[in-house]
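Cross-posting from the chemistry board since nobody answered there.

I work mostly on the small-molecule side, so proteins are not my area. We synthesized guanosine-5'-diphosphate and want a rough idea of how it might sit in this target. Sequence and SMILES are below. Is it possible to get a predicted 3D structure of the two together?
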Amino acid sequence: MNAEKGLLIVLSGPSGVGKGTVCAALRKVCPNLVYSVSATTRPPRPGEQEGVNYFFKTREEFERMIERGELLEWAEYVGNYYGTPRRFVEEMLEAGKDVLLEIEVQGAMQVKRRYPEGVFIFLVPPSMEELRRRILGRGTEGDAAITERLEAARAELAMMAEYDYVVVNDTVEHACERIRAIVTAEHCRRDRLMPRYQKLLAEGK
Ligand SMILES: Nc1nc2c(ncn2[C@@H]2O[C@H](COP(=O)(O)OP(=O)(O)O)[C@@H](O)[C@H]2O)c(=O)[nH]1
Ligand SMILES: Nc1ncnc2c1ncn2[C@@H]1O[C@H](COP(=O)(O)OP(=O)(O)O)[C@@H](O)[C@H]1O
């Protein structure tokens, strides 16, 4: 029985902290979790696939999606647009699936206004040096983009206070386990489950 709607889980954190890596690991261990694929105007990185990592759009296409109200939230990050297609999220939540959004902080705050019942998780690095190492180690950005991402990271870390949970990504396995524990606990929240039992009691069942 799955009378409840799914949970909307929002994961943010500075560039290079390991959001993509942790999300990929989570999807393997949480069968009820679906990942929302974002639209972006950023060019694909080597190995990234259309419809899997992102829906890659031109600025014109993206602006049309905004005008048509097709995005649940959107933001500009380091010179590119990023946004969450609305329909997929709404349909999955309605079907009782937990939906994971991996988005930056401005977008997360838009989601929080629309879905205050969402679960907001902020992923942090064990240290700033380790964050730098991870961004450099990934090797997907040029020097200027790395500097920009590290600057954005400082501003993003200051937004931690707006989130419900802070998870340290020391190892992928541990970070994943912590997020799984959060999701399990959120499923057991009284305000989520009580309406169903109140209804059963009222019906005398
Ligand atoms: N607001 C918003 N942010 C997004 C969305 N998709 C991805 N992002 C965020 O945009 C930022 C840049 O993403 P990306 O270019 O893939 O770089 P990376 O996360 O540093 O690997 C990250 O903080 C993502 O979480 C989205 O749909 N909406
Ligand atoms: N717990 C971890 N320990 C060590 N390296 C990590 C960890 N998590 C991610 N990484 C590495 O850090 C780099 C950035 O990870 P990525 O998932 O692309 O970050 P984000 O999506 O937050 O920008 C990648 O090279 C990834 O393999």
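Reply from a structural biologist on the board:
Welcome over. Reading the output above for you: The chain is about 45% helix and 20% strand. The chain has a mean pLDDT of 92. Happy to explain the token format if needed.
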